[in-house]
MFS transporter
Amino acid sequence: MSGVRNLPLIRAATIATIVSGASITNTGIYAPILIGYQVLAGLAWGAGIQVPMIATQGTSKELDLAFETAILLFFQIVGGAFLVGGQTPSTDSVFRLMGLLTYA
């Protein structure tokens, strides 16, 4: 079911990629478009991070509120740390294959 829940994100990303690529190709202007997309992405990212917090606080009992909020924040932060730690070796290997990464 998780794949089905990701379909709106995948569709929106695909459409945005096609539209932005076509507009940059037709106009040749990319800096204002890039800034606009960064603002839009920041708004969407902020909403995506805030929704689990609202859902957690809205459904938990008053006695469990602090504990459940702490658990949510812990997993959001630790999850990001693990993802960065996992992304670094894969990025290094891709750069090495492309010849962009050299060691002294």
Summary: The chain has two domains: 1-59, 61-104. The two ends are 47 Å apart (CA to CA).
